[in-house]
Amino acid sequence: MTRPLQQKAAARGADRKDVRAVCVRCGRGRPYAVVEPRCDCGGLLDPEYDLSRAVIRDDEAAPGARYFDLLPLQRPESVLHIGDGNTPCVHARTLGARLGLDRLYLKDETRNATRTTKDRMAACVLAVFQERGVEEFVASSTGNSSSSFAWGLPYTRGMKVQLFAGRDFVDRHQYTDHPRVELHVIDDDFVGAAKAGRAYADEHGLLFEGGFFNSARREGLKLAYLEAYDQMPQDPAVVVQAISSGMGVYGAHKGAREYMAMGRLRSMPRFVCVQQSSCAPMWNAHQEGSDHIRPHHVLHRPQGLAKAILRGDPTNTYPFMRAITTGTGGGFAAVSDIEMTESRHWLAQDEGIDVCFAGAAALAGAAQLARSGAIRREEPVLVNLTGGERIGPADG
User: Fold this and answer.
1) What is 118-213's CATH number?
2) pTM of the predicted model over 0.85
3) Above pLDDT 90, what percent of the chain?
Protein backbone atom coordinates (compact mmCIF):
# COMPACT_ATOMS: atom_id res chain seq x y z
CA MET A 1 0.00 0.00 0.00
CA THR A 2 1.34 3.40 -0.89
CA ARG A 3 1.77 6.16 1.70
CA PRO A 4 -1.01 8.36 0.23
CA LEU A 5 -3.38 5.42 0.57
CA GLN A 6 -2.38 4.94 4.20
CA GLN A 7 -2.88 8.62 4.96
CA LYS A 8 -6.33 8.69 3.37
CA ALA A 9 -7.32 5.49 5.14
CA ALA A 10 -6.22 6.88 8.49
CA ALA A 11 -8.32 9.98 7.89
CA ARG A 12 -11.34 7.70 7.37
CA GLY A 13 -10.52 5.33 10.21
CA ALA A 14 -14.07 5.50 11.54
CA ASP A 15 -15.36 3.93 8.30
CA ARG A 16 -15.04 0.37 9.66
CA LYS A 17 -18.02 -1.64 8.50
CA ASP A 18 -19.51 -4.99 9.38
CA VAL A 19 -19.74 -7.48 6.54
CA ARG A 20 -22.25 -10.31 6.42
CA ALA A 21 -22.60 -13.24 4.05
CA VAL A 22 -26.06 -14.10 2.75
CA CYS A 23 -27.14 -17.27 0.96
CA VAL A 24 -28.44 -16.50 -2.54
CA ARG A 25 -30.79 -19.48 -2.35
CA CYS A 26 -32.44 -19.43 1.09
CA GLY A 27 -31.58 -15.87 2.19
CA ARG A 28 -30.07 -16.84 5.53
CA GLY A 29 -27.27 -14.60 6.76
CA ARG A 30 -24.16 -15.22 8.82
CA PRO A 31 -20.96 -13.40 9.73
CA TYR A 32 -18.60 -13.11 6.74
CA ALA A 33 -15.80 -15.71 6.77
CA VAL A 34 -12.49 -15.65 4.92
CA VAL A 35 -13.43 -18.45 2.54
CA GLU A 36 -17.02 -19.40 3.21
CA PRO A 37 -18.28 -22.93 2.72
CA ARG A 38 -21.54 -23.12 0.85
CA CYS A 39 -24.71 -22.69 2.86
CA ASP A 40 -26.29 -25.79 4.45
CA CYS A 41 -28.95 -25.62 1.71
CA GLY A 42 -26.23 -25.79 -0.95
CA GLY A 43 -26.55 -22.16 -2.00
CA LEU A 44 -23.71 -19.76 -2.66
CA LEU A 45 -22.79 -17.22 0.01
CA ASP A 46 -22.37 -13.60 -1.09
CA PRO A 47 -21.12 -10.59 0.89
CA GLU A 48 -23.95 -8.16 1.54
CA TYR A 49 -23.54 -4.40 1.97
CA ASP A 50 -25.75 -1.56 3.16
CA LEU A 51 -26.42 -0.11 -0.29
CA SER A 52 -28.48 2.74 1.15
CA ARG A 53 -25.27 4.10 2.69
CA ALA A 54 -22.75 2.95 0.08
CA VAL A 55 -20.69 5.68 -1.58
CA ILE A 56 -18.41 5.50 -4.61
CA ARG A 57 -15.37 7.66 -3.78
CA ASP A 58 -14.54 9.00 -7.23
CA ASP A 59 -11.51 10.93 -5.95
CA GLU A 60 -9.69 7.74 -4.94
CA ALA A 61 -7.05 6.40 -7.34
CA ALA A 62 -6.98 2.86 -5.94
CA PRO A 63 -10.01 0.81 -7.03
CA GLY A 64 -10.21 -0.85 -3.62
CA ALA A 65 -10.51 2.53 -1.94
CA ARG A 66 -12.92 3.93 -4.55
CA TYR A 67 -15.29 0.98 -4.21
CA PHE A 68 -14.56 0.19 -0.56
CA ASP A 69 -18.25 0.20 0.41
CA LEU A 70 -18.86 -2.63 -2.09
CA LEU A 71 -15.99 -4.87 -0.95
CA PRO A 72 -15.78 -7.42 1.92
CA LEU A 73 -13.24 -5.32 3.83
CA GLN A 74 -13.91 -3.89 7.27
CA ARG A 75 -11.29 -1.14 7.36
CA PRO A 76 -10.17 1.32 4.65
CA GLU A 77 -6.54 0.91 5.70
CA SER A 78 -6.75 -2.77 4.67
CA VAL A 79 -6.99 -1.86 0.96
CA LEU A 80 -4.09 -3.06 -1.20
CA HIS A 81 -3.22 -1.51 -4.54
CA ILE A 82 -0.88 -3.77 -6.52
CA GLY A 83 -1.05 -1.91 -9.83
CA ASP A 84 -4.57 -3.15 -10.52
CA GLY A 85 -7.41 -1.24 -12.09
CA ASN A 86 -8.06 2.11 -13.74
CA THR A 87 -8.02 0.44 -17.14
CA PRO A 88 -9.62 2.14 -20.17
CA CYS A 89 -13.02 1.26 -21.60
CA VAL A 90 -12.55 1.91 -25.31
CA HIS A 91 -15.34 2.80 -27.74
CA ALA A 92 -14.09 0.59 -30.59
CA ARG A 93 -15.56 2.46 -33.55
CA THR A 94 -13.37 0.94 -36.27
CA LEU A 95 -13.66 -2.62 -35.02
CA GLY A 96 -17.35 -2.10 -34.26
CA ALA A 97 -17.98 -1.02 -37.84
CA ARG A 98 -16.28 -4.21 -39.04
CA LEU A 99 -18.43 -6.37 -36.75
CA GLY A 100 -21.69 -4.49 -37.22
CA LEU A 101 -21.77 -3.12 -33.67
CA ASP A 102 -21.98 0.67 -33.55
CA ARG A 103 -21.65 0.86 -29.77
CA LEU A 104 -18.94 -1.68 -29.03
CA TYR A 105 -17.01 -0.96 -25.81
CA LEU A 106 -13.90 -2.91 -24.82
CA LYS A 107 -12.70 -3.05 -21.22
CA ASP A 108 -8.96 -3.33 -21.77
CA GLU A 109 -7.73 -5.36 -18.80
CA THR A 110 -4.34 -5.91 -20.46
CA ARG A 111 -3.35 -2.63 -18.76
CA ASN A 112 -3.18 -4.26 -15.31
CA ALA A 113 0.23 -4.89 -13.76
CA THR A 114 0.54 -8.51 -14.96
CA ARG A 115 -1.67 -7.85 -18.00
CA THR A 116 -4.68 -9.70 -16.59
CA THR A 117 -7.91 -8.84 -14.79
CA LYS A 118 -6.90 -11.39 -12.13
CA ASP A 119 -4.75 -8.67 -10.54
CA ARG A 120 -8.01 -7.18 -9.26
CA MET A 121 -8.91 -10.54 -7.74
CA ALA A 122 -5.49 -10.88 -6.09
CA ALA A 123 -5.61 -7.37 -4.63
CA CYS A 124 -8.97 -8.06 -3.00
CA VAL A 125 -8.19 -11.59 -1.79
CA LEU A 126 -4.81 -10.63 -0.32
CA ALA A 127 -6.34 -7.61 1.41
CA VAL A 128 -9.16 -9.69 2.90
CA PHE A 129 -6.75 -12.46 3.96
CA GLN A 130 -4.37 -9.98 5.57
CA GLU A 131 -7.20 -8.21 7.39
CA ARG A 132 -8.42 -11.58 8.73
CA GLY A 133 -4.98 -12.73 9.87
CA VAL A 134 -4.14 -15.32 7.20
CA GLU A 135 -0.36 -15.82 7.05
CA GLU A 136 -0.10 -18.62 4.47
CA PHE A 137 -2.50 -20.16 1.96
CA VAL A 138 -2.71 -22.60 -0.94
CA ALA A 139 -4.04 -21.76 -4.43
CA SER A 140 -4.22 -23.29 -7.90
CA SER A 141 -4.98 -21.94 -11.36
CA THR A 142 -4.19 -22.20 -15.06
CA GLY A 143 -1.66 -19.41 -14.54
CA ASN A 144 -3.22 -15.97 -14.38
CA SER A 145 -4.59 -16.12 -10.83
CA SER A 146 -1.45 -17.69 -9.41
CA SER A 147 0.78 -15.19 -11.20
CA SER A 148 -1.31 -12.34 -9.82
CA PHE A 149 -1.06 -13.76 -6.30
CA ALA A 150 2.71 -14.05 -6.66
CA TRP A 151 2.92 -10.50 -8.02
CA GLY A 152 0.84 -9.09 -5.17
CA LEU A 153 2.54 -10.97 -2.34
CA PRO A 154 5.34 -8.38 -1.79
CA TYR A 155 2.62 -5.81 -1.04
CA THR A 156 1.57 -7.84 2.02
CA ARG A 157 3.17 -8.08 5.44
CA GLY A 158 5.02 -11.38 5.10
CA MET A 159 2.24 -13.57 3.68
CA LYS A 160 3.23 -16.87 2.03
CA VAL A 161 1.56 -18.85 -0.77
CA GLN A 162 1.82 -22.44 -2.02
CA LEU A 163 0.81 -22.53 -5.70
CA PHE A 164 -0.28 -25.71 -7.52
CA ALA A 165 -0.19 -26.05 -11.31
CA GLY A 166 -0.84 -28.80 -13.84
CA ARG A 167 2.27 -29.51 -15.90
CA ASP A 168 0.63 -28.22 -19.09
CA PHE A 169 0.27 -24.79 -17.46
CA VAL A 170 3.70 -24.31 -15.86
CA ASP A 171 4.83 -21.87 -18.54
CA ARG A 172 1.89 -19.60 -17.65
CA HIS A 173 3.02 -19.16 -14.03
CA GLN A 174 5.21 -16.09 -13.62
CA TYR A 175 6.46 -13.76 -10.86
CA THR A 176 7.09 -16.83 -8.68
CA ASP A 177 10.78 -16.11 -8.01
CA HIS A 178 10.11 -14.88 -4.51
CA PRO A 179 11.14 -16.45 -1.16
CA ARG A 180 7.50 -16.55 0.01
CA VAL A 181 6.15 -18.25 -3.14
CA GLU A 182 6.48 -22.00 -3.80
CA LEU A 183 5.23 -23.57 -7.03
CA HIS A 184 4.18 -27.25 -6.99
CA VAL A 185 3.89 -28.91 -10.42
CA ILE A 186 1.37 -31.76 -10.78
CA ASP A 187 1.21 -34.28 -13.66
CA ASP A 188 -2.44 -33.54 -14.29
CA ASP A 189 -4.79 -30.84 -15.59
CA PHE A 190 -6.23 -27.83 -13.75
CA VAL A 191 -8.82 -29.89 -11.88
CA GLY A 192 -6.17 -32.40 -10.75
CA ALA A 193 -3.86 -29.61 -9.57
CA ALA A 194 -6.71 -28.11 -7.54
CA LYS A 195 -7.38 -31.46 -5.87
CA ALA A 196 -3.69 -31.82 -5.04
CA GLY A 197 -3.62 -28.30 -3.63
CA ARG A 198 -6.63 -28.95 -1.44
CA ALA A 199 -5.06 -32.17 -0.12
CA TYR A 200 -1.82 -30.31 0.64
CA ALA A 201 -3.75 -27.62 2.51
CA ASP A 202 -5.57 -30.23 4.60
CA GLU A 203 -2.34 -32.08 5.37
CA HIS A 204 -0.48 -28.95 6.47
CA GLY A 205 -3.34 -27.16 8.20
CA LEU A 206 -3.38 -24.31 5.70
CA LEU A 207 -6.21 -22.37 4.12
CA PHE A 208 -7.15 -23.48 0.61
CA GLU A 209 -7.98 -20.29 -1.22
CA GLY A 210 -11.13 -21.69 -2.80
CA GLY A 211 -11.31 -20.34 -6.36
CA PHE A 212 -14.86 -19.50 -7.43
CA PHE A 213 -16.19 -20.18 -3.93
CA ASN A 214 -13.92 -17.57 -2.38
CA SER A 215 -16.23 -14.56 -2.59
CA ALA A 216 -13.30 -12.13 -2.31
CA ARG A 217 -12.26 -13.36 -5.77
CA ARG A 218 -15.65 -12.59 -7.25
CA GLU A 219 -15.84 -9.22 -5.50
CA GLY A 220 -12.40 -8.20 -6.77
CA LEU A 221 -13.24 -9.13 -10.36
CA LYS A 222 -16.49 -7.20 -10.01
CA LEU A 223 -14.51 -3.96 -9.95
CA ALA A 224 -13.59 -4.21 -13.64
CA TYR A 225 -17.28 -3.98 -14.40
CA LEU A 226 -18.08 -1.23 -11.92
CA GLU A 227 -15.34 0.80 -13.60
CA ALA A 228 -16.77 0.00 -17.02
CA TYR A 229 -20.34 0.86 -15.99
CA ASP A 230 -19.00 4.21 -14.74
CA GLN A 231 -16.94 4.81 -17.90
CA MET A 232 -19.57 4.01 -20.53
CA PRO A 233 -21.77 6.91 -21.70
CA GLN A 234 -24.84 4.63 -21.59
CA ASP A 235 -25.77 1.43 -19.78
CA PRO A 236 -24.63 -1.74 -21.57
CA ALA A 237 -27.41 -3.81 -23.09
CA VAL A 238 -25.14 -6.83 -23.43
CA VAL A 239 -22.07 -7.94 -21.45
CA VAL A 240 -19.73 -10.56 -22.95
CA GLN A 241 -16.84 -12.41 -21.31
CA ALA A 242 -14.96 -15.66 -21.92
CA ILE A 243 -15.26 -17.96 -18.93
CA SER A 244 -13.58 -20.84 -17.15
CA SER A 245 -15.52 -21.14 -13.89
CA GLY A 246 -17.45 -17.92 -14.53
CA MET A 247 -16.45 -16.00 -11.40
CA GLY A 248 -15.89 -12.79 -13.39
CA VAL A 249 -19.37 -12.93 -14.91
CA TYR A 250 -20.82 -13.71 -11.50
CA GLY A 251 -19.12 -10.62 -10.09
CA ALA A 252 -20.29 -8.52 -13.04
CA HIS A 253 -23.90 -9.57 -12.48
CA LYS A 254 -23.72 -8.92 -8.73
CA GLY A 255 -22.18 -5.52 -9.38
CA ALA A 256 -24.96 -4.67 -11.83
CA ARG A 257 -27.58 -5.58 -9.21
CA GLU A 258 -25.83 -3.41 -6.63
CA TYR A 259 -25.52 -0.50 -9.05
CA MET A 260 -29.20 -0.76 -9.94
CA ALA A 261 -30.10 -0.61 -6.24
CA MET A 262 -27.88 2.46 -5.88
CA GLY A 263 -29.41 4.16 -8.94
CA ARG A 264 -26.15 4.07 -10.90
CA LEU A 265 -27.47 1.59 -13.49
CA ARG A 266 -30.98 1.72 -14.91
CA SER A 267 -31.42 -1.78 -16.32
CA MET A 268 -29.86 -5.22 -16.16
CA PRO A 269 -27.78 -6.17 -19.24
CA ARG A 270 -27.94 -9.56 -20.92
CA PHE A 271 -24.94 -11.65 -19.91
CA VAL A 272 -23.18 -13.88 -22.44
CA CYS A 273 -20.60 -16.50 -21.42
CA VAL A 274 -18.14 -17.58 -24.13
CA GLN A 275 -16.10 -20.78 -24.31
CA GLN A 276 -13.80 -22.18 -26.99
CA SER A 277 -15.24 -25.02 -29.04
CA SER A 278 -12.50 -27.46 -28.00
CA CYS A 279 -13.40 -26.99 -24.32
CA ALA A 280 -17.04 -25.96 -23.99
CA PRO A 281 -18.70 -28.10 -21.31
CA MET A 282 -21.04 -25.30 -20.21
CA TRP A 283 -22.07 -24.48 -23.77
CA ASN A 284 -22.70 -28.16 -24.50
CA ALA A 285 -24.83 -28.58 -21.36
CA HIS A 286 -26.80 -25.46 -22.23
CA GLN A 287 -27.36 -26.68 -25.81
CA GLU A 288 -28.88 -29.86 -24.41
CA GLY A 289 -31.11 -27.90 -22.06
CA SER A 290 -29.42 -29.47 -19.04
CA ASP A 291 -29.48 -27.68 -15.70
CA HIS A 292 -26.25 -29.39 -14.62
CA ILE A 293 -23.03 -30.77 -16.05
CA ARG A 294 -23.42 -34.43 -16.99
CA PRO A 295 -20.53 -36.95 -17.16
CA HIS A 296 -20.31 -36.78 -20.96
CA HIS A 297 -19.79 -32.99 -20.79
CA VAL A 298 -16.61 -33.33 -18.72
CA LEU A 299 -13.22 -33.18 -20.45
CA HIS A 300 -9.97 -34.51 -18.96
CA ARG A 301 -6.82 -32.57 -19.86
CA PRO A 302 -8.63 -30.39 -22.42
CA GLN A 303 -6.68 -28.64 -25.16
CA GLY A 304 -7.20 -25.31 -26.89
CA LEU A 305 -5.67 -21.98 -27.85
CA ALA A 306 -7.16 -20.12 -24.88
CA LYS A 307 -5.30 -21.84 -22.03
CA ALA A 308 -6.67 -19.47 -19.41
CA ILE A 309 -10.14 -20.98 -19.80
CA LEU A 310 -9.24 -24.67 -20.16
CA ARG A 311 -11.50 -26.00 -17.40
CA GLY A 312 -12.90 -29.35 -18.40
CA ASP A 313 -15.14 -29.87 -15.38
CA PRO A 314 -17.25 -26.86 -14.29
CA THR A 315 -19.77 -29.05 -12.46
CA ASN A 316 -19.91 -26.85 -9.36
CA THR A 317 -20.23 -23.50 -11.10
CA TYR A 318 -22.34 -24.14 -14.20
CA PRO A 319 -25.69 -23.83 -12.36
CA PHE A 320 -24.80 -20.26 -11.32
CA MET A 321 -23.81 -19.30 -14.86
CA ARG A 322 -26.96 -20.86 -16.27
CA ALA A 323 -29.08 -18.94 -13.77
CA ILE A 324 -27.42 -15.63 -14.73
CA THR A 325 -27.63 -16.12 -18.49
CA THR A 326 -31.20 -17.43 -18.36
CA GLY A 327 -32.33 -14.81 -15.87
CA THR A 328 -31.02 -11.90 -17.95
CA GLY A 329 -32.01 -13.18 -21.38
CA GLY A 330 -28.39 -13.83 -22.32
CA GLY A 331 -26.77 -17.14 -23.14
CA PHE A 332 -23.65 -19.09 -24.02
CA ALA A 333 -21.49 -19.10 -27.13
CA ALA A 334 -18.73 -21.40 -28.37
CA VAL A 335 -16.08 -20.10 -30.78
CA SER A 336 -13.58 -21.87 -33.00
CA ASP A 337 -9.82 -21.44 -33.23
CA ILE A 338 -10.33 -19.61 -36.52
CA GLU A 339 -12.80 -17.18 -34.95
CA MET A 340 -10.46 -16.48 -32.01
CA THR A 341 -7.44 -15.99 -34.24
CA GLU A 342 -9.35 -13.72 -36.62
CA SER A 343 -10.78 -11.62 -33.77
CA ARG A 344 -7.36 -11.26 -32.17
CA HIS A 345 -5.92 -10.04 -35.47
CA TRP A 346 -8.76 -7.56 -36.04
CA LEU A 347 -8.47 -6.19 -32.52
CA ALA A 348 -4.74 -5.52 -32.91
CA GLN A 349 -5.18 -4.05 -36.39
CA ASP A 350 -8.23 -1.85 -35.74
CA GLU A 351 -7.75 -0.80 -32.12
CA GLY A 352 -4.09 -1.52 -31.32
CA ILE A 353 -4.95 -3.86 -28.43
CA ASP A 354 -3.01 -7.13 -28.09
CA VAL A 355 -4.94 -9.74 -26.10
CA CYS A 356 -4.56 -13.37 -25.12
CA PHE A 357 -6.81 -15.95 -26.76
CA ALA A 358 -9.27 -15.82 -23.85
CA GLY A 359 -9.80 -12.12 -24.55
CA ALA A 360 -10.08 -12.91 -28.25
CA ALA A 361 -12.69 -15.57 -27.47
CA ALA A 362 -14.93 -12.98 -25.82
CA LEU A 363 -14.69 -10.69 -28.84
CA ALA A 364 -15.30 -13.62 -31.19
CA GLY A 365 -18.42 -14.48 -29.21
CA ALA A 366 -19.74 -10.94 -29.58
CA ALA A 367 -18.99 -11.04 -33.33
CA GLN A 368 -20.75 -14.38 -33.69
CA LEU A 369 -23.89 -13.11 -31.94
CA ALA A 370 -23.86 -9.91 -34.01
CA ARG A 371 -23.79 -11.98 -37.22
CA SER A 372 -26.71 -14.10 -36.03
CA GLY A 373 -28.76 -11.08 -35.03
CA ALA A 374 -28.77 -11.99 -31.33
CA ILE A 375 -27.08 -8.64 -30.70
CA ARG A 376 -28.47 -5.69 -32.64
CA ARG A 377 -26.21 -3.13 -34.32
CA GLU A 378 -27.40 -0.20 -32.18
CA GLU A 379 -27.13 -1.95 -28.79
CA PRO A 380 -24.37 -0.85 -26.39
CA VAL A 381 -22.15 -3.93 -25.95
CA LEU A 382 -19.46 -4.33 -23.29
CA VAL A 383 -16.77 -6.93 -23.96
CA ASN A 384 -14.30 -7.66 -21.16
CA LEU A 385 -10.85 -8.29 -22.66
CA THR A 386 -9.59 -10.12 -19.60
CA GLY A 387 -5.90 -10.19 -20.41
CA GLY A 388 -2.94 -10.19 -22.75
CA GLU A 389 -0.08 -12.58 -23.34
CA ARG A 390 2.91 -12.07 -21.05
CA ILE A 391 6.39 -12.35 -22.58
CA GLY A 392 8.26 -12.79 -19.32
CA PRO A 393 8.70 -11.63 -15.73
CA ALA A 394 10.55 -8.53 -16.83
CA ASP A 395 7.29 -7.18 -18.21
CA GLY A 396 5.97 -6.68 -14.71
Assistant:
1) 3.40.50.1100
2) yes
3) 84
